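Memo to structure team: turn this sequence into structure tokens by end of day. - J.P.
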Amino acid sequence: MSLAATLSIPQAAVSLPPKERDLRLDFFRGLALWLIFLNHIPSNFVGWFTTRNFGFSDAAEMFVFISGYTAAFVYGRVMIERGPTVASMRILKRVWQIYVAFVFLFVIYLAQISWVAARFENPLYIEEMNLMHFLQRPEIVIVEALLLRFLPANVDVLPLYIVLMAFFPLILWMLLRAPNLTLGLSFLFWLAAYTQSWNLPGYPQDKVWFFSPYAWQFLFVIGAWCGIGCVHQIDGILRSTAFLIVAGLYLALAGGLQLVTNLSVIFSLNLRWPDWLLIFPLDKTHLSPLRLIHFLMLTAIVVRFVPANARFLRDTWARPLIICGEHSLEIFCLGVFLSFTAHILMIEVSSRIPFQVFVSLGGILTMIALAGIMTWYKKLQSRAQKNPAT
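Reply from structure team:
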């Protein structure tokens, strides 16, 4: 038996969704990018109205899940139609693009923070963004950054995405052959990573990654499992009245507990969670069960009540979110710069609530503007390819 026959994908194992682009993916990915930008601005009034303050999960889970779904949706069809080798090369090409984006982001972000610290004569900016070691040992830190070990603040999602995509050719091949078994193995890997606190080392020696790839791979694989059409296996459960009631109660409990936490912080109250919940801390690094269950239940309810052909997805007001989601890598990198810029403006210019709202909206409008320019240029290139004479 030839190697090609051995690696071929049995098409009966999966039922890929239709080729049409699901606007929900771009809409909610764009929303996740906006929320990440707002949450990266410290002490931001607008940030109090983001999803992380109304439940256990936040925009990070949204971004990773949609990334897994999209990767499987796009490259799964390529792997079936053109084989594992072609699909793997395309995935690795995407990994290289993300890595190059990370390197450019690191260099420009480093320059931005260093210039601001020198301009305002405030070295605390460098310390706050976790760049103090760069000034002490720049020759070592640059190498550690290229090895994805030294990570400035607010860029952690990108290295996580690089690692998850680097191993995705193997994961996708396994998903297309044995989707449920692959999902089960991913769950066991997450369980071991959560209970044993597995993580990748960082720099300096006492640092580790903010997002453990060993744990977050499970959410990425769940998204990919859904992206190749396996979610239909549990349609009956997700659309049942019993599940809707349980999910609604859990989301309400999560929202209530987060509200108690927020009130305790705002008004310096001595409020605390019930003791029976303390056995499952909201560990974001290792994707705690409370966060994972909250996000999956929230996603199931959204999918139930927001169909792929929902009318609002084609309304004018939804277009900015969708175009930001279409250019997620570039918009994420821009959001990192904008969040630090907003932070500086709030410290050096004004920290009043109207100004916080102004810089938050200004950052989102800037993200929309870049996404709009990229969308326009992409259409221009498409027309040029169809009509080379023009």
